[in-house]
Specification:
A hairpin with a 7-residue loop joins strand 4 and strand 5. The protein has a five-stranded mixed β-sheet, with helices on both faces. It is α/β, with parallel strands linked by helices.
Length: 148
């Protein structure tokens, strides 16, 4: 199973000043589309607090936030690129913060989809060249192409 990526859920060049602001923007977007439940943002933020999702990958770092399946109405990805990097806590060392430029949010409404989602995301993110192309993308189709 490959997770769906819809053009309307690729948010390019977001201007935000914090990881919380990014999470608010993406949660509000998904809520407006009916893809997540009202409580999604609250749980996304709480999970990020306990289990940071910043990944130090090299030149361009990525965050892969997610929360539990019961707060979602669908299974898919959302990709956001940031105008300027925001500070995100590092997954491997929560005392350390890293600058993040790309956010890949996995939304899933069934627990068994979580591992597949993370495997698909990591397959793309382990390639720094692909990450750079995602960060620089000017169209949703370009990003979708890089994930497929």
């Amino acid at each position: 199973m490959s997770l769906d990526l819809f053009p309307e859920d690729i948010l390019l060049h977001i201007n935000a000043d914090s990881c919380e602001e990014v999470l608010h923007l993406v949660s509000s977007h998904l809520l407006g589309e009916g893809k997540v439940k009202q409580s999604y943002e609250e749980h996304l933020l709480a999970r990020e607090e306990d289990y940071p999702t910043g990944l130090a990958l090299g030149e361009i770092n990525v965050a892969i936030p997610h929360t539990d399946y019961q707060y979602a109405n669908t299974t898919q990805l959302l990709v956001a690129t940031l105008d300027k990097p925001v500070t995100w806590r590092n997954m491997e060392d929560s005392d350390e913060s890293i600058p993040v430029s790309v956010v890949v949010l996995s939304v899933f409404d069934k627990p068994e989809h979580q591992l597949e989602a993370l495997q698909q995301i990591m397959g793309v993110l382990q390639n720094q060249e692909l990450v750079a192309q995602i960060a620089d993308a000017d169209s949703a189709q370009q990003v979708i192409g890089l994930f497929n």
